[in-house]
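Run log, item B.
One chain of 671 residues. Sequence copied directly from the ordering sheet:
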Amino acid sequence: MSTELSPALRERIENTIRGLTIDAVQKAGIGHLGAAMGLARPAFQLWDRHLRFDPEAPDWPLRDRFVLSAGHASMLLYSLVHLYGFDLPLSEIENFRQLGSRTPGHPEFGETPGVEVTTGPLGQGFGNAVGMALAGRLTRSRYAAGDQGPGHHLVYAVASDGDLMEGVSYESASFAGHLGLGNLVVLYDDNHVTIDGPTSWTFGEDVRGRFEAQRWHVETIDGEDLAGLDAALEAARAETERPSLIITRTTIGRGSPNWAGLSKAHGGPFKDDEERLTKENLGIPLEPAFYVAPEVRAYMAERIQAKRAERRQLDEALEVWRSTHPDRADAWDRARGRVLPADLTARLAEGLEDESAATRVHSGAVIQRLHEAAPIFVGGSADLAGSNNTTIKGAPAIGPAAEGDRFAGSNLHFGVREHAMGAITNGLALDGTFLPFCGTFLVFSDYMRPSLRLAALMQIRSTFVFTHDSIFVGEDGPTHQPIEHVDALRAIPGLTVFRPADALEVAAAWSWTATQAQGPVAFALSRQKVPALKREAGFVLEDVWKGGYVVRAAGGAEDVVVLASGSEVGVAVEAASLLAAEGVRARVVSIPCLELLDAQPESVVDELIPRGVPCVAVEAGRGESLRRLVGRDGLIHGMKGFGESAPYQALAEHFGFTGPKVADAIRQHLA
């Protein structure tokens, strides 16, 4: 027998969401009550009547995506995930914010089924949703045939006042509107409250006017008006050429007699008997805690079956597409399965042994080959494509400037939007169809650090191409010359950082990124030309994957081991040659990737960098991340301060990064 969703039952379900939120926060003694309580009605309606998903298959590729950009309202999401039958038992709700639970304080991708993305740093989830929507449009363009095939899902996001105040959301919204991502729908939780007080203190702009100016379709509703919400969602789905914002007026802490609508409702737990008063007001039993009524369970069980039936229908339609368009289906399967050519490494490195150029130039050539071998690589840069060498030649651009289908290309022009670029790239990676990359100058990685950190936290396949990686940017001066940035990237757990020395190291690094990476990768690439290295006999490209290898042997027992990365490896080799003429035997070790070297057994590192031998590290930055390899008694020949504005050759001489100057530093260290 079908259970009718009467107004009374609807209210009970909404109050169940509020009750689970209250109990979880009260038990944990910390958390955010207000947004989840205020959003219970519109969020339940969205999930129940509009969102398509299958709780038995959280990664079903045809599902709609739901992004809680306002990640502090995590109990809203956990309550919905639990009630709709995902693998999140009530015991996990009871363990909210506790060690080892699948209900952390903010939603974390990979920890909890039904959680599409790690959110919490405000604005990032908004940018991720834009990237997910872009991935959906790219998928539809490449693999679907009309209304048949993948890429027809929608991306829904819930954003707060805080999300819209953070600059990353402005950049992301601008990008989404410019591209016309009609498959993106954002519900703005307009509750007029922030942590410190009413939004009137800090946020007085015309949000509707702002988004309309950014080419969005905008609706305004009362969050308690179900008919208005349904109509707004229908209008958003009908608007296929623009993303949609639904300004949803809610009351933070709805149902609380004394906290509703106040800034203190943002956090929790309730105090001064407000928990009891709120439960009595909402008709929630005081005991037991975490109560879900039988009639709520019965209704949800029916809706779970309806969601699964909808999935079966869509999967059946997908099978028709597969049989009608087998080539497209095979290409989509290969993309989702990350199927790459077995000889990819050799393809990427072919003919590069003697090529001398900037590593950014080598990277551009390798990206070209990579895309030809695996078209799932898509990307671009923040208005620096010519400098970052991220353009895929022969492939159309994505966006309104494209001829014909604006989503048929592979080149993304992010504009001067580094903040958004990182978040959007992560959203593209989270979709699971493409392997995205993005680029800018290394010094501007500071703008992207939240996205870099979240990519590492989620362990997703985003690739960040950072060029102009040292003081050898030259005349642009210290504002554009990165000093601490390579060290700062290496400090992020789970981020693999390559600083390759020449063309072969670039090719090997990109091959590792394509075939071995299980998380994000960052490249630090030179602006200036670097020589092709002459390596020891027996070198193979996979030596680069070890993170460090001998470039120049000492010709006997070592007097000193010289470590270097990137453009300084060639300088170190020159210095070693000068020292050899004086009878000083120097082994030169290239360190293209410190993270991969750290993953090697200690015995391998000891063989590469023998204990008891004086050690010098050369890097045209701070270089302090190499300290653990050289030891307390070792020398870091790096930058002690910021750079200067001058031709890079003059800077190399001034700051001591020429062969003779490095040789002098080594002599002094050994003296």
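Observations after the first pass:
- The mean pLDDT is 97.
- The chain is about 40% helix and 10% strand.
Flagged for discussion on Thursday.
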